[in-house]
Amino acid sequence: MCGIIAVVRRPSERVPASGAELLALVERASAASAGFADLAPGPALVDLLDAVAAPLVQADGLLRGSPGVRTLLADPALTPALDRLTAGIEGRADAVEGALDHAESLGSTAELELVNAALVRLRDAAWAIRRDRLPTAARVADLAGSDPGLAAIEAYLSLQQVLSAIDRLEVRGRDSAGIHVLVHGHGLDLEAPSVRALLDGRDDDPRFVSGAVRVAHGHLAFVYKAAAEIGELGDNTAALRAAIADDALLGLALSGPTAEALVLGHTRWASVGIISEPNAHPVCGEESDGVPRPYVAAALNGDVDNHADLRAEEGLVVAAEITTDAKVIPALTARRLAEGDDLDEAFRRTVATLEGSVAIAATNGVASDRLHLALRGSGQALYVGLTEDAYVVASEPYGLVEETSTYVRMDGETPANPDNPTASRGQVLVLDGARAGTVEGIARVAYDGTELPVTAADLETAEITTRDIDRGDFPHFLLKEMT
């Protein structure tokens, strides 16, 4: 199984809403919800439920992305006020639902369907504000520290979104997890004694364990990992969150006004390679032969069935502690780059040599704002969510619905060329950070290089929200459903 999650973001151009504007929207919804008790099931109640939901949906939209986080961080009194108001609206919605459950006469089935649908719209909007937007801003603040700049807010927002998604994707495997952060535009003098002191001891461990840093074509690549055979859901992200919040070098790299971060995360169910930090993904392409090559890091779902053959054929020189099959992906891509292939071709050529059902995400130092994805076979999946100023990639829709319900689903099975079905089965996507969040920023080809342009017709809409998949106080979702 395993789970991939990534966020590719560009700087937001939206002006943050004022706290007064947001408060007015939710106060309007709260005042209108007081009328629920006066209406029986029917068109009038549907209209009122929709009238309450509309300003909540608008407020939720304003609270999304880094502009929403900036609004909440700028006004500490806003979060408790919005929480109190939305909690009251949810309580009044509960009363409506309770009345429907116990009323002797409920009107027609059609009217009840309309009322229930309107209740769902209202509940989804209130839930998104209270359980998604407000906690996200608070957790960004916990990661970023006091008074973060705009660039830091956006980078730590990406990190928070990845951490949140890993929590949900842990049902696909939780024996280890990792987050890779590629920071470009940091503006640091990497030879300055103060920076060098923070780098020393972190940039030369070939095992690429938690806390490792690499200087990648002038950019900074950080990795954080957790691995344990026994543990509870959430343990890994708690460890990753603490390591990220405590990393002074990461904070320094993100403090500049032009800093940007591409974040790639993974939660693992070990199949090839023991449960350990060196085997936790993402892994980098660095080899132990001392030959400098372009920087590449990758995460894998599935199994590379011929990884041992590829290691032998290519003569890969890998640290003994790294036995995961994922290692061949960034290592071979880096070798193709060193041989002169352009980035897209190096990645496509590499994944085309892999046998087995795989989903892959890779980041690099050559074009630090681009993410490469590959999918082949029926056993894995990748979804590319499109939201304002960002792509959110996940192995399941429930990994991205906190941020967006709109996505492109990769197809690892359908041949692009009927005359050459084997070679053309599988897809490679390249996400361009400069156009993040748009259809135009997605390039797609088949495994054989056949172009497969992405259009608006490829967009799909998820039919779930985070309210549907929340496990509440239960230790896992299955126990909640059984209860």
Structure write-up:
The protein is built from 14 helices and 15 strands. The protein has 483 residues and is α+β, with helices and mostly antiparallel strands. The protein has two domains: 3-7 and 151-469, Aminohydrolase, N-terminal nucleophile (Ntn) domain (Glutamine Phosphoribosylpyrophosphate, subunit 1, domain 1); 12-143, no CATH class. The mean pLDDT is 94.
Essential attributes:
single chain; 483 residues; alpha+beta; 2 domains; nine-stranded antiparallel sheet; six-stranded antiparallel sheet; globular
Rounded radius of gyration (Å): 24 Å
Quaternary arrangement of the chains shown?
single chain
Structure summary, number of beta strands = 15
Helical content class:
25-40%
As residue ranges, the low-confidence spans are none
Q: What is the total domain count?
A: 2
The CATH homology group name of the largest domain:
Aminohydrolase, N-terminal nucleophile (Ntn) domain
Which secondary-structure class do the elements indicate?
A: alpha+beta
Fraction of residues in β-strands:
15-25%
Give the strand order, joined by hyphens, for the main sheet.
3-4-2-5-1-11-10-12-15
So what's the overall shape?
Answer: globular
Instruction: Characterize the largest beta sheet: strand count, sense, and whether it forms a barrel.
Output: 9 strands, antiparallel
CATH class of the largest domain: Alpha Beta
Task: Determine the CATH topology of the largest domain.
Answer: Glutamine Phosphoribosylpyrophosphate, subunit 1, domain 1
Write the H/E string, N to C: EHHHHHHEHEEHHEEEHHHEEEEEEEEHH
Overall pLDDT metric: 94
Q: What's the tally of helices?
A: 14
Distance separating the two termini:
26 Å
